[in-house]
Amino acid sequence: MKITDLSMMLEEGMQTFAAHWHPFFESTQLGRHGIENRETRKIILGTHTGTHIDAPRHFIARGETIENVPLEQINGPALVVDFSALPDKHEISREELCDALNNRCPERLIARFDWDLKLNTNEYYTDHAFFSEEACQWLVDNGCRVIALDTPQPDNPLNGRGAEKDAPNHKILLGAGTVIVEYLVDIRKLSQQEVTLIVAPLKIKGGDGAPVRCFVIEEM
Hints:
The chain is of the alpha/beta class and about 220 residues long. It contains five helices and twelve strands. The strands form three sheets. A seven-stranded mixed barrel has the order 4-10-9-7-5-11-12. A two-stranded antiparallel sheet has the order 2-3. Strand 2 (about 25-30) and strand 3 form a beta hairpin.
């Protein structure tokens, strides 16, 4: 059995989307050895800091919140698909997705772009490949319940707030109850296509999402 951690390290100075609704990670030591004789810390982070899961509530006003997303939905067999050869800013069409999946839609999809190699660059948020709306609609229509990826989002990075379309893929997926796991790392270290995905979000009451420890188990 091989276990591969796909989670970002939470640390001060880590790359965070530059918007007031995404706080920077902070860690402050409170308890100290030799003074309080124990070590404790206060941490500040957002619900979408580092590797995290989007619950439907993130974009759907009355969508489900993170503590009510079934663990059975987000944990289990998953299919890894390699999109790392795609050019920057490429839109994955429904036909391309169907071809990559051999017309077999998984319940949990892990999309590899190797985009974590772009972390700490300006291009990380602006140049990644993304899915077409038709591709996302095909996923939800055919039973996909989790899409996990090593980019910041499944949407066109040019469709930001104020654009004609604001995160349409988030709305298609989350509106159908399909959750999104973003900011994965090290998918390229996996050696198998069919794996077991483990996603463990913080249990936040009323949470629109949560940081996760995400890893994959491969039977060797």
